[in-house]
Structures are given as C-alpha cells and as structure tokens.
Amino acid sequence: SGSDSLSYLSFSLGKLWLVLMILLRLAVVVLAGYPMYQDEQERFVCNTLQPGCSNVCYDLFSPVSHFRFWLIQTVSVLLPYAAFSIYVLHKVAVHIVRMHCLLHGCKSNKGLSSPKDVKQLYRSAVVNRADSGADNLSVLNFSGAYTVHLFVRTLLEVAFAAVQYFLFGFFVPDRFSCHHSPCTSTVDCYVSRPTEKSI
C-alpha cells in the first residue's frame, strides 16, 4: 500500500542520511582535522622565554584537543543508534521465535543454543508465511523507539555544540592573550592557521 511504501522510503532515506553523516563527519575529522591539529601545540608561539609559560597559556587556550573532542562527539552520537539497532535485533529475534512457536508449537526442553537456531527459525517462519495467511502475520512497529533514539541523538548534538561553544567558541582567534603563573606579565600567543580552523 501507499503508506507502507512511504514508511519504507523514509526509513531508507533515514539510513542513507545516517551513513552519509557518519562517513562525512569521520572523513572531515580524520582527513582534515587530524593534519590541521597534530602540530597545534608546537605552532602555538608565545612572545616569552619564561619556562612553562607557553604550556600554561596553551592549556588555557585549548583545555581539550579539538580533534579528540570531535572524535568523542562522533562516537557519542553513534551510541543511541547502536542501542536502537541492538533493541531492534532483540525484538525481531523474539518475534521470530514466537512466530515459530505459534506455527509449529514449542518444546519446552528445546532452547536456542546458537545464532544458527535463530536463523533456522527465521527461515522456517519465512517459508511458512504463505501457509499461515496474511491475517496471522504481525508487523513489528519500532516508530516509538526510533523517535526516542532520534530525540537522544538530537539532544547529544545540541549538548556537544553548546560545550564546544563554551570551550572554544565558533571562531579561532589569531592571537590569545594570557596572564597566568608562571607568566610574569601578559603574554600574547599566536595560533597557527586560525582562519582555516574557523572555517
């Protein structure tokens, strides 16, 4: 029917969007972010010879590495999807076992000892679909769990965007002024490639 094809289309587009988001984000972080930030501390030049002052200023300027922060963000955004996938696999496996029990009856002394047993039950359920009739088939609905997982992912994205804003801002300055022990006076430090990093 039309609603089934529409839901299948939206599900397919959602999966495609997720894969592209993950691949594009990982590509940007690994291929562009890592080369740009691997020498960040070495190129953070301060106009002082005071021992330890440059390190303290860099720690104030960047309390967390941008690159590591983005990797943690990417992994954290993937966790709700992984939890949703595990939930779906579990529910589908239970549903297959129940279908098999309804069609053939279950023996109480026979358990599912391996994934092969679940595969065999799935195959037998698919083969016996035609015999059971369309009225006896039930379709699992994961829209509630999918909505919850989308909501959690959106919250994580917003939370990480807020944390990034409060830690770094959205623009990398070309100069950072620092006055903290062991610096004896206000020190100006210069950041490498600030425009490229802001972009």
TrEMBL record:
Q: What are the protein's UniProt keywords?
A: Cell junction, Cell membrane, Gap junction, Membrane, Transmembrane, Transmembrane helix
Q: Its topology with respect to the membrane?
A: Multi-pass membrane protein
Q: Which residues form the Connexin N-terminal domain?
A: 35-68
Segments crossing the lipid bilayer: 16-37, 69-89, 150-172
User: Coiled-coil regions in this chain?
Assistant: none
Cellular location of this protein?
Cell junction, Gap junction; Cell membrane
MF terms (GO), sorted A to Z: gap junction channel activity
InterPro entries attached to this UniProt entry: Connexin, Connexin_CCC, Connexin_CS, Connexin_N, Connexin_N_sf
Q: Which GO terms describe its biological process?
A: cell-cell signaling
Indicate whether Transmembrane appears among the record's keywords: yes
Name the domain of life.
Answer: Eukaryota
| PROSITE patterns, per the entry | CONNEXINS_1 (PS00407), CONNEXINS_2 (PS00408)
Quote a single Gene Ontology cellular component term: connexin complex
Q: Which Gene3D superfamilies match?
A: Gap junction channel protein cysteine-rich domain
Domain (Connexin cysteine-rich): residue spans on this chain: 156-199
Function field: One gap junction consists of a cluster of closely packed pairs of transmembrane channels, the connexons, through which materials of low MW diffuse from one cell to a neighboring cell.
Family in the record: Belongs to the connexin family.
Assembly and oligomerization:
A connexon is composed of a hexamer of connexins.
Put simply, this protein is called: Gap junction protein
Give the gene that encodes this protein: Gjd4
